[in-house]
Automatic annotation (TrEMBL):
InterPro entries: AB_hydrolase_1 (IPR000073), AB_hydrolase_fold (IPR029058). The keyword Hydrolase applies. The gene is KAI2d8. The lineage of its organism: Eukaryota, Viridiplantae, Streptophyta, Embryophyta, Tracheophyta. Belongs to the AB hydrolase superfamily. This is Strigolactone receptor KAI2d8. Pfam families: Abhydrolase_6 (PF12697). One of its GO terms (molecular function) is hydrolase activity. Residues 20-259 form the AB hydrolase-1 domain.
Amino acid sequence: MSKVGAAHNVRVLGSGKTTIVLGHGFGTDQSVWRHLVPHLVDQYRVLLYDNMGAGTTNADHYDFDRYSTTGLEGHVSDLITILDEFNVGKCIFVGHSLSPLAAMIASISRPDMFHKVIILSSTPRDVEHCGLQMWTRAGTSRPVSCSTGWKTNYKTTIRGMPKFAIGSDSSVAVQEFTQMLESLRPDITLSTIRALHKYDVRPLLSQVTVPCHIIHSSKDNGVPVAAAEYLHQHLGGKSVLEVMPVEGHLPHLSSPEITNQVLLRHIHLDIADRA
């Protein structure tokens, strides 16, 4: 395997004409898609990868300047490199949280790489009312700032975050997310949190012209539906928004039966094909 493929644990499954790329969000890795992958491999070529800094990647490869001082730019560059390396063109990108934002930004300079982007539980700006400040309160008794909360209450926050994020009584999903979070190296996690606190893709949304399918839980403790509505209203190309009757920031992990049906429908149908 190539150097970039090994660094990001790239896996390619199936052999269809169309490639589906699955991107995970903060605190997880590509295993979070285990419920969806079996529904794809008979019809599509499926590419999975891990964002640098995930617990499954080699921490020695994490460049703190690259990923903490430039917001999403490091992940955007990584994604373009992966898609080029594996000859991916006009893919269907399905991403959770931060990954679809990286795909949208990548599509501005490389629209040839994307047929459409499917956006699950994402927000254009992860601060204050729709992001980090809520995450930092997950395991604490009072609101704290982003940097102070994670530095001084790291273990408490990590323990409280899964149940807060899942938002339902799915003990299996809480346990899975807990294991993924605990595999993160603390200094890399804090670096990622700093990057999350900085990013703001709102000025770029009008330049995103590839079709975008926005999917959101009706109740997400970390990201309100208003964030999904903002994306829908400000993207430069065609977009569609569907709010699912499920709870939690990781519905593909906590409510896979409903979420898979919705994702598969958006994968199979383009916006022009939808009623």
